[in-house]
Amino acid sequence: MSNNLLAGKVGIISGALDEKSIAWKVAQRAHAQGARFVLTNAPIAMRMGEIKKLSAECDAPIIPADATSVEELEALFSGAQEHLGGKLDFVLHSIGMSPNVRKKKDYGNLDYKFFQQTIDVSAMSFHKMMHVAEKQDALNEWASIVALSYIAAQRVFPDYTDMSQAKAMLESIARNYGHRLGVQKKVRVNTISQSPTKTTAGTGVGGFDAFFDYADKMSPLGNAPAEACADYCISLFSDLTRYVTMQNLLHDGGFSSMGISEHVVEALTKMAETQQA
């Protein structure tokens, strides 16, 4: 259902790889709510994914950009403004990658060159995006910038390794740039800490299926699906959240407030009984 929450608004959506991607769902929801936007992803990710299909569905041009490159981001923001006919109202940063996670290196045996790549791609790219947007004066007043995070920024999830540091840095950048852009142009900057989600990237983390089930049992509402996260992004892009900024917003079905749940107690009890039998 469309309420035209984003009618007349224009922006950039990064990170849509395939139909499992949260960014993909955000693009579909934004289009349905009346927004126009440019899609972007790294050239290598575009070769792996299906972004052209999304581009046709949403009538959204694609401007490839490596988010670690200031020069390519400059071309992205200037190209987006040229195509959309003016300054931007929203930007989605849905970018994350860890070579250490992909290669299943545990936390005590990280490759530090990989670690630097993780930080650059997953966190510093967010700073670079806003740096370019600021220098180009590419944002309208009350624009909204959203990045996707995860609770591993605050808590230990061993298989998430160096992505935990990247997400912590991402959230810190949101607070600091949120202050800066808020003072300058009343631009809002927030992160969303999403439930474990069965995206292509998410399922690449070791033990994902077991943790997905655990989080679902821990959360009073269950894990928030990608579609619901997309709806939350749309609300943050809209004028209904004009005074929400510099926040890490938990979108996890209540997981972050739980100590233990009845479902987990039952599962542990059954496991203990089985071991004793």
TrEMBL record:
<comment type="similarity">
    <text>Belongs to the short-chain dehydrogenases/reductases (SDR) family. FabI subfamily.</text>
</comment>
<keyword id="KW-0444">Lipid biosynthesis</keyword>
<keyword id="KW-0560">Oxidoreductase</keyword>
<keyword id="KW-0276">Fatty acid metabolism</keyword>
<dbReference type="Pfam" id="PF13561">
    <property type="entry name" value="adh_short_C2"/>
</dbReference>
<keyword id="KW-0520">NAD</keyword>
<protein>
    <recommendedName>
        <fullName>Enoyl-[acyl-carrier-protein] reductase [NADH]</fullName>
        <ecNumber>1.3.1.9</ecNumber>
    </recommendedName>
</protein>
<dbReference type="InterPro" id="IPR002347">
    <property type="entry name" value="SDR_fam"/>
</dbReference>
<dbReference type="InterPro" id="IPR036291">
    <property type="entry name" value="NAD(P)-bd_dom_sf"/>
</dbReference>
<dbReference type="InterPro" id="IPR014358">
    <property type="entry name" value="Enoyl-ACP_Rdtase_NADH"/>
</dbReference>
<keyword id="KW-0275">Fatty acid biosynthesis</keyword>
<keyword id="KW-0443">Lipid metabolism</keyword>
<comment type="pathway">
    <text>Lipid metabolism; fatty acid biosynthesis.</text>
</comment>
